[in-house]
Structure formats: C-alpha cells, structure tokens
Amino acid sequence: MTRAGGIILKSAREIELIRAAGRVVHRVLKQTRELAGPGVPTAELNAAAEELIRQAGGVPLFKGVRNPQAKFPFPAALCTSINEELVHGIPGDRRLSEGDVLSVDCGVRLAGYCGDSATTIAIGTVSTETQHLLDVTRSALEAAIGEIRPGRMWSEVARKIQAVVESEKLSVVRDFVGHGIGREMHEEPKIPNYWSDKQQPLDFELVPRMVLAVEPMVNLGTHLVGYGDDSGWVVITRDRKYAAHFEHTLAVTDTGVDVLTDGR
Ligand code: MG
Ligand code: MG
C-alpha cells in the first residue's frame, strides 16, 4: 500500500472498483431526482434507493453508521435533508412540498470499495434566492474539480471554493468537511471547503491516485450550524435559512482529475 503523508494511494484497479461503486451511487441520485416531488415522503425515496443498491449487489454505506453524539445508528440508505437541514437528515413520513430543497447524500460499498456523492434537488418551483444557493453550491464543486491537479496544495482548492461562495454573499460551512475514501467511507485526509491559518496543519499536496470525496456545504445565511433534534444526527443551520450540499468522489490523475461518481 502506497501512502502520501498518511493518505492511502489507490491502484488503477482500485480506482475502477471505486468507480463501479460510484456508478451505483449515481444511479441512486438520478432515481431520487426523478421520484422526488411535492407530496412524496422521504421514506419512499429511501426505500427505492435501498432496493436499487441491493439489486446492484451493493451495500448502503450509511445504514448502521454510529457517531458518538447520536442516540442510535443511522437507520437509512440515504441522508435526506430538507431546507434548513444541512446534512444527516433521516428519511421518514415527512412529505416534500413545493419550494423545498432536498439534499440527498448516498454512499455505496460494492466489492469492498466505497463511493459517496450528494446533490441538492429543487422541489417544484423554488424561490430565486433558493435557486441561486443551488447554482452557487454546484459551481463551487465544479470550480474545485477544475482546480484539482497534481502538485496543487489543497489550500488552493479550498480558497477557490470559498471565493466562489463568498463572492455570491453565501457562506461555507466550517464544521463539516470532505474526506479521503476507498475501502472505508472515511479515510485520511480531512478536506475543508474554506481556508484560514488554523487549517494550515490540514494542508496536503494533491498526488496522483489519491481518491477524495469533495463536498462543499453552503448556507444562505450564517455558516453556523447545530443539531435540529435530539437524535444527534440531523444538522441544521443556526438561523434556519436554507442549505445546499453537492459532493463527488474523485481521483487525482497524472494530469488532472477523474470524477468517479458522475455515472461514466
Ligand atoms: Mg456523502
Ligand atoms: Mg462524504
């Protein structure tokens, strides 16, 4: 196993296995986008997702995950986070409404390797402000992907994400970050979407065959977040304004980047 500063580098074969898991994740997100609409309960999206994952021979990565703050292991294949919910929303009876935004995060393990991707879906017609939030968050992820190449420091990419978001008067979430991924959903390194002197110890050089889950989380108002209920899972914005989340699993190549969860 090759490592670069504690980060596991993957072989070409392993990257193809991660892509295979990523293809299943992509299909799930596509299916969720097609099924989601006003009146649809998030539990229905989750049931369809789990069925697709199992039919593909995969295992839902999030189901059964524990965290020290949470009262119970995560119970679902999808995280479904509505409006002011940022991440880790739990699918249930709540029905989506016109004007909502739904962030959907999905992870799959297939043949021992993991893929992880998220998208935020507009339910029916959303306000101009909400659409702007979605557009900017998606462009922040695209801008990050455009910056990734060997020899770059992550801090340069993080500054780019932050600049894209803050130039549009939105805020980047600090308390949650991206991560390395491979045999495990969460591997080294931790990948912030913003940068200041405090992040300097986390900086790393992008090296071919690193596989990373890059996931900007963006809020309409304050960057501050907290828990939305006593489950210890659902994270919400502190000012209850809407949030968005886009994520891809990607590999650094010899010349740039290869996105592994875009369905190719
Ligand atoms: Mg994810
Ligand atoms: Mg992730």
Short key terms for the protein model shown above:
binds magnesium ion, alpha+beta, 264 residues, globular, 27% helix
Structural write-up:
This protein is of the alpha+beta class and 264 residues long. It has one domain (6-255): Creatine Amidinohydrolase, CATH 3.90.230.10. It is 27% helix and 27% strand. It has four helices and 17 strands. It has helices spanning 12-35, 42-55, 128-147, 154-166, and strands at 2-4, 7-9, 59-60, 78-82, 85-87, 101-110, 113-122, 171-172, 178-180, 187-191, 211-214, 217-219, 225-227, 235-237, 243-245, 248-252, 257-259. The structure holds magnesium ion (2 copies). The site of one magnesium ion has 6 residues, from β6 and β7.
Short description:
This protein is an alpha+beta fold and 264 residues long. The protein has one domain (6-255): Creatine Amidinohydrolase (Alpha-Beta Complex), CATH 3.90.230.
SSE order and pairing:
Layout: E1 2-4, E2 7-9, H1 12-35, H2 42-55, E3 59-60, E4 78-82, E5 85-87, E6 101-110, E7 113-122, H3 128-147, H4 154-166, E8 171-172, E9 178-180, E10 187-191, E11 211-214, E12 217-219, E13 225-227, E14 235-237, E15 243-245, E16 248-252, E17 257-259
Antiparallel strand pairs: 1-2, 3-6, 4-6, 5-14, 6-7, 8-12, 9-10, 9-11, 11-16, 12-15, 13-14, 16-17
Helix pairs in contact: 1-2, 3-4
- Specify the overall morphology: globular
Tell me the number of structural domains.
1
Give the CATH class: Alpha Beta
Q: Give the overall average pLDDT.
A: 97
Strand order of the largest sheet: 10-9-11-16-17
- Low-confidence region ranges: none
Q: Indicate the proportion of strand residues.
A: 25-35%
End-to-end separation: 27 Å
Bound molecules: magnesium ion
Annotated CATH homologous superfamily? Creatinase/methionine aminopeptidase superfamily
Q: How does CATH name the architecture?
A: Alpha-Beta Complex
Radius of gyration: 17 Å
Largest β sheet strand count, sense and barrel closure: 5 strands, antiparallel
Task: Classify the helix fraction into a percent range.
Answer: 25-40%
Number of helices: 4
- Secondary-structure-based class equals alpha+beta
